TrEMBL record:
The keyword Chaperone does not apply. InterPro entries: Asp_endopeptidase, ATP-grasp, ATP-grasp_RimK-type, ATP_grasp_subdomain_1, Peptidase_aspartic_dom_sf, Rimk_N, Rp_bS6_RimK/Lys_biosynth_LsyX. Transmembrane segments: none annotated. It comes from Pseudooceanicola nitratireducens. This is Probable alpha-L-glutamate ligase. GO terms for cellular component: cytoplasm. The keyword Transmembrane does not apply. It comes from the Bacteria.
Amino acid sequence: MDDTLQDDSPNALRLGWEEWVSLPDLGLPALKVKVDTGARTSALHATDIETFGRAEKPQVRFTVHPIPGRDDLAIPCSAEIIDRREVTSSNGETEMRYVIRTNLAVGDTTREIELTLTDRRGMQTHMLLGRQALGENVTVVPGDKFCQPELSYEVYHSAKVRKAAPNRVLRIAVLSREDNYSTRRLVEEGEKRGHAVEVIDTARCYMAINALAPEVHYDGKRLPRYDAVIPRIGASITAYGTAVIRQFETVGTFSVNSSAGITASRDKLHAHQVLARNKIGMPATAFANSPKDTGNLVGLVGSAPLIVKLLESTQGRGVVLAETRKAAESVISAFRGLRANFLVQNFVKEAAGEDIRCLVIGGKVVAAIKRSAEGGDFRSNLHLGGKASPVRITKEERETAIRSAKAFGLNMAGVDLLRSESGPKVLEVNSSPGFEGVEKASGKDVVAPLYDQIEARVRPAPVPRRRSSRAD
């Protein structure tokens, strides 16, 4: 430190050449800083510095390693860019740095300061406090240190750091090929919260697959680091779409629904096996490969009428009601002739063409509607002309919906239930549920809880202590 900063007023803040501070707006509750009156600007050690957001209000994302030597502790941060400034460091090197504004807390004092972002790797402290940040009513004593109360890096080993982390600006990708109500609502709600939300056509993503630097590319460029991705994967590109999600998962991006959960829910045979393994009620279901087993297959699910369902069916298409055993055998024969995979299910008569769609987000049912078939159709899908109305579900139905989403590891799921004499029966678990019918029929905002879930999940997690090094 080159100079002594002296303020003789009785209320002056007394600082040594090294102090503990916190940057609460960035989610950094404890940092050791070097106080340097010879430096004009303040600097924060930051890596992975990347701009995002709209040109009229640019943001910057960066990673801070608050504990020197602990690269395993990485705190993701974001802030509005207020300037880009040329700064000359103590070793004479000049670089352009992004400048942000944030609150600094030291002792009982909190003040707003400007910070430049730079890579201070190898420095003993990861933050430098310069003259601009010190301002008035400050006395700096070069021979002293820790004149203000000492903090501890132990806070980063506690769950408290996650709970106390601020809701920072996030960069989020919506993987969708359609400009529909659900996609527009995801963008609208995210931008309302100040996040940067980009819609990415899943089919146009391509991947660089390697051990050291896996990447996702789009439209000729490497995609930036996203805090989270929200998959809206169409049934026609399930295989490729889940491969793209796996790539995002590989680079460490949080996906609202995992690739494994989407894959399992899309394969109807696999999905029913998952439900059965978790002892979740569903209509009696059977599957066979050989045409010689047709008679036995029908017998396994009970008497007619029966449902014959293509494994790749979506939105009620590829689902046939066979009124008699002979009709069921004819449909099965036709599907086999097309080399189509299908399953046979018991028809729940008492449901009377109605089912319940429960939207589960973050382990809670945030909305439920009743869907009723029109014109004598047994299928209640809204895409086929069914009508939706609000419904009050039972405790058993709520628990069944939550257990179903959990069985697939889905943070967001549309769980379709039938009301039967023996309790709720799960028809399907949809990993890309539409929002329009649910929001309009229930009158509830179902996208806001999804963003609550994302904001909670992307907060930094506590890191384990190292036995070989001191925490502070």
